[in-house]
Amino acid sequence: MHQSMKIKLMLWFTILYLFFFTIVSISNRNYEFLYYTVVMSLIIIILIKYKEHLSFTTGIAFGLTIVAALHIFGGNVYIGETRLYDYWLTSWFKYDNLVHIIGTFTATIVAYTFIYQHLNEKAKNNKVLLSIIIVSMALGIGAVNEIMELFAVLFLNASEQVGDYLNNAFDLVYNLMGSIFATIYLFYIQKEQV
Questions:
Q1: Which residues of 107-132 are buried (b: 16+ CB within 10 A; e: fewer)?
Q2: Which sequence spans correspond to the domains of the chain?
């Protein structure tokens, strides 16, 4: 299947579940995830508009599709009485932690793909400097996500769903882990531009 067809299928999958969970959020009066759905829709529009500048690959589109789906499902799907975001996968690791690792892994790949095309050969070959730059960019994206959660707490009364300071701090730690895993993948496993 051609790359553009794969990306279109992923886009349609994303549009369908966003539409479905928008209806679910409205019917459940889940305004927090309605807010996130609007924000994600705006991000998708921006990514589509600037896809040529981002060197969009099928892998990146797949990563973004998975992250968006994990996020929306996390706030709208329940296992018994437990919201998926609050579900413990092990005694020490929640679904939320997994989403942060995968999300920041993907953000690091996007940052790398975006910045790589603008670097000279010396910078491209300096793995330490390039790692610091892309990890910092990905952590910045993760921080923006935490700011968006703060808005949900302040304006949509979502403090119980979002969590406390310790949850915020752990989110940032898992973001760092995802970003480090991505740099290991990029420079020691993949060893070429994604």
A1: bbbbbbbbebeeeeeeeeeeeeebbe
A2: 3-190
Which DSSP helix (H) or strand (E) runs through 78?
A: strand 78-79
The helix (run of H) or strand (run of E) holding residue 82 is strand 82-83
Question: How many angstroms separate the CA atoms of 164 and 155, rounded?
Answer: 16
Per-residue pLDDT of the chain (194 residues; tens, 9 = 90+): 787 788 889 989 999 999 999 999 899 888 888 898 899 889 888 888 877 776 778 888 899 999 999 999 998 899 999 999 999 999 999 999 999 999 999 999 999 988 988 888 998 889 999 999 999 999 999 999 999 988 888 888 877 778 788 889 999 999 999 999 999 999 988 765 55
For 77, left (φ over 0), alpha (ψ -120 to 50), or beta?
Answer: beta
- Determine the Cα–Cα distance for residues 188 and 182; give it in Å rounded to an integer: 10
**Could you tell me the two tokens for 27?**
């019917």
Strands 82-83 and 78-79: antiparallel
How far is Cα 58 from Cα 55, in angstroms, rounded to an integer? 10
- The answer to whether the predicted template modeling score (pTM) of the entire model surpasses 0.90 is no
Burial 152-169 (b: 16+ CB within 10 A, else e): bbeebebeebbbeeeeee
